[in-house]
Design a protein that fits this description.
globular
Length: about 210
Amino acid sequence: MSVLSDGAFLWYLNRATGLVSLLLMTLTIVLGVVVRRQGRLPGFARFGVVGLHRNVSLVSAVLLVVHVVSAVVDGYVSIGWLDTVVPFVSGYETFWVGLGTLAIDLTALVVVTSLLRGRLPVRVWRGVHLTSYALWPLAFVHGLGAGTDLGSGWVLAGAVGCAVAVLVASAVALSGRLRTRPAEDRAADALALARTSLATGRPAAAFRNR
């Protein structure tokens, strides 16, 4: 019997890639918040954090592909290729597998738009990129419902840790957005400051520091 036809191997491969992919998704979200807030990690310049964020997300996507392929090839349950791209059509665990399919579709969308970032409007890229916050809970709930690993033991503890990390990162990202004034308001203030400076002949810094 070949290695690829060995049900036990495919079962372990499917579970392992799913779990590690979820862990890397968590790390991707945390690093994304660090990048957005222009933070740094020990031993990394800011561009290094950006590169790490990109590479971790790509590795997570690759593992997700392996996770999907191993589930289809295994044949232990009825999951077809169509089920991996069209949500909620699988004959096996329709709802839970459908959530995983949605996560796959969002991952593909985020990866493709990231590769095309230089050719897309910033608002389009950013809007699509924000869907990664929906991607994680979809993958997490999919694992709880369709898998057998997240319900107990050290895997459950790791899953809870990932959930806490994502919640904290999301809260930090949201608080940063609430404190940041809209770009239109900042532009209007800058224009008003420039006009005042021209009208009075005083440098703009004199008004900014008052």
